[in-house]
Amino acid sequence: MEQQKIELLPNAKPITTKQGRWNRKYILMVKEELDKLLKVRFITPMQTTEWVFPMVFALKKNSKLRACVNYKALNKVIKKNRYPLPFCEEILDELAGHEMYTFRDGYSGYHQVKIALEDQLKTTFTTP
What we know:
alpha/beta, 3-stranded mixed sheet, two-stranded parallel sheet, single chain
């Protein structure tokens, strides 16, 4: 499986961003989401790191919680990816005439992108 590298700009320094306050009613919902990610070992607890970003949340239309991490500060110090996603029409053209094809699970979304081991500390997040 392909791994995503996080290449920093020259002279980039580690970033620590503070966690904001949350409404108490959402804290249990976040805990449930994090417990699921811990159970499948998608995330692992960290004791300390110089790179820390705040977790934020958004309510979906079905009133469930979407856990996100605010990586705006990180995005400012990384080299930009020059490989845009292909157009849907190009993908469909490639599929035409084939009996079978596979696709990524839309439910998991970005959880399918593996971060390179040496860059995982740059994706650390905090919660209340």
